[in-house]
Amino acid sequence: MQRMWGGILVSDNLKLYNAVKTVPVEAQKKITGGRLSGMTDINPMWRIKCLTGQFGACGFGWKYEIVDKIFKEGANGEIAAFVDINLFVKLDGEWSAAIPGTGGSSFVAKESKGMYVSDECFKMALTDAISVACKSLGMAADIYFEKDRTKYDSKVNSDEKPKTESNQNLISDAQAKRLFGLAKGDTVIVKGVIEAHGYKATKEIKKSDYEKICKEISVC
């Protein structure tokens, strides 16, 4: 026998999942640099809007509680902040069981100009934790399920070829050497400038960014 729960038929288990799985284009942003290059970042306010649209205002139709906040030391003096939460949603006047989520963000990070301390690390970790909990509801599933890859994958599946920038769009070896010439051989300057543009190595630099990078290195 079918039972209605918050307007959702219990037998239709994917109804909520299907209602929240698609992220509008305006809430998406491609990550172009670093370890997560090629993945998609989602505007956190979209999740708040989605939760509110499905369950009601925060505190009335959905809520979360912070279970734990900790710092963890990493390599090279870096420190990460982690937040554990329980997310709750209300359907048909009934609160759900706790939906756990863990999020993390850098507190002390090693950058090209030295150690950087973030005073927003716990706020960012909380946002991450909410996103993790929301995955259990199917929120943004189309993004996370794309090609069965997530940011936690360490390698590409054997039947999936990695995406690479066309060589025609990248600078030549001679142009890369010129960057070090402009920096008078100072690799720290070159590394700092290209990382500011989202590149990890000179071989990744696009021609469209080359002249701007040259000018920035010249004035360092």
Notes on the structure:
About 5% of the residues have low confidence. This protein has seven helices and nine strands, in the order E-E-H-E-E-H-E-E-E-E-E-H-H-H-H-H. By secondary structure, the protein is α+β, with helices and mostly antiparallel strands. The protein has two domains: 134 residues, Enolase-like, domain 1 (2-Layer Sandwich); 52 residues, no CATH class. It is elongated, with a radius of gyration of 22 Å. Strands 5, 6, 7, 8 and 9 form a five-stranded antiparallel beta sheet that branches. Strands 1-2 form a two-stranded antiparallel ribbon. Strands 3-4 form a two-stranded antiparallel ribbon. Helix 5 runs parallel beside helix 7. Helix content is 31%, strand content 25%. The N and C termini lie far apart (72 Å).
List the helices and strands and how they pair.
Elements: E1 4-5, E2 8-9, H1 15-20, E3 28-30, E4 40-42, H2 44-55, E5 62-73, E6 79-91, E7 94-95, E8 99-111, E9 114-117, H3 121-135, H4 141-144, H5 173-182, H6 187-196, H7 207-218
Antiparallel strand pairs: 1-2, 3-4, 5-6, 6-7, 6-8, 8-9
Helix pairs in contact: 5-7
Structural class: alpha+beta
Beta-strand percentage range: 15-25%
Number of domains: 2
Helix tally equals 7
- The total of beta strands comes to 9
The biggest sheet, with number of strands, parallel, antiparallel or mixed sense and barrel status, is: 5 strands, antiparallel
Rounded to an integer, what's the Rg over CA atoms? 22 Å
Query: What is the CATH homologous superfamily assignment of the largest domain?
Result: DNA repair protein Rad52/59/22
Pattern of helices and strands: EEHEEHEEEEEHHHHH
> What's the CATH first level of the largest domain?
Alpha Beta
- Bulk shape: elongated
- Please give the alpha-carbon distance between the first and last residues: 72 Å
What's the CATH topology name of the largest domain?
Enolase-like, domain 1
